[in-house]
Amino acid sequence: MSNNANERTRREFLKTAAAASSATLLGSMASPMIGADKKAPADAMPTRVLGKTGMKISTLSFGGGSQFLKNKNGAWEPLLQKAIDLGINYFDTHQNYNTEQRFGEILPKYRKKIYIATKFDPRDPAGAMKSFEGSLKRLKTDYVDVLMLHALEKKDDLKTFETGTWKMMQKLKSEGTARFIGFSSMNSATASKNFIEQLNPDIALVAMNATRYAGFAKLTLKPAIKNNVGVIAMKTMRNLVGKKGVKPQDLLQYVLDQQGVASAVVGHYGMNVLEENVRIVKALAKRPKMTPAAKKKLETACAQYANPNALYWARSDYRDDGVSYA
Length: 326
What we know:
Elements: H1 3-30, E1 47-49, E2 56-58, E3 60-63, H2 66-69, H3 76-85, E4 90-92, H4 100-106, E5 115-120, H5 125-139, E6 144-149, H6 158-163, H7 165-175, E7 178-185, H8 189-199, E8 203-207, H9 216-226, E9 230-234, H10 248-256, E10 261-267, H11 271-284, H12 292-302
Parallel strand pairs: 3-4, 3-10, 4-5, 5-6, 6-7, 7-8, 8-9, 9-10
Antiparallel strand pairs: 1-2
């Protein structure tokens, strides 16, 4: 097929998707989203506004990465369903997680009540668009609530990105096929800070935990708050749960106590883990913030793990495939 034919096909795809998306969004306005302004049950999942997006997302988000991928067929279906039943309304995935298909089997029938986020790897507009089109098909939706550049790194050239792929993402946002746009990063807090300050995204998904590894909280939260960028924390508990002096509830409270953080995205392996994490965030919503002494104690306990040897996801050869670092 010629380049012109490819371009026509792509424009037709976007035109159709945007029209369908607009209709879907209008329908969504008629049906309140989870977390909308109404009297919630006492045990309801707590929600927070995700920055300038205005979306009220659950303080515990569902991660579609390696931990979720580890759930075998017959186990992941009820797990994903249970997450919805328990009030989780933000679901994060990526083409390379190999879980977009899973989301596409369960989430579409709840489309008006949940938020779906996905990511792409290619830095060039054509590659990014191709990845995004594939994501829409696998997710069985005509729009995503959040589209992000995956794994921002120090080597990424923001000037080139701004005039190319970022411009394309802004166009998708104006058309409605990606309601909000942003980036994810677990490798460079400095690059993340620069992205927030220079491009003013809607959302930043960044690594953040009590080890303080890479300094994401220190470098990114201040500019994010200033620009009203919605922040979601990831890698909050990965490779830390089970360590001496480290408890899941403390790890979750540590990040959710950070000013500007709306939610912690966690991958769940097994129903018991999911239910326990939901119980924790519900309890945290009723508790005062962690005391400075307790915060310092947790940071001290986690300090020895602030390195790629302990945090597998920080390794240069890390693969989020559910097998390599199971």
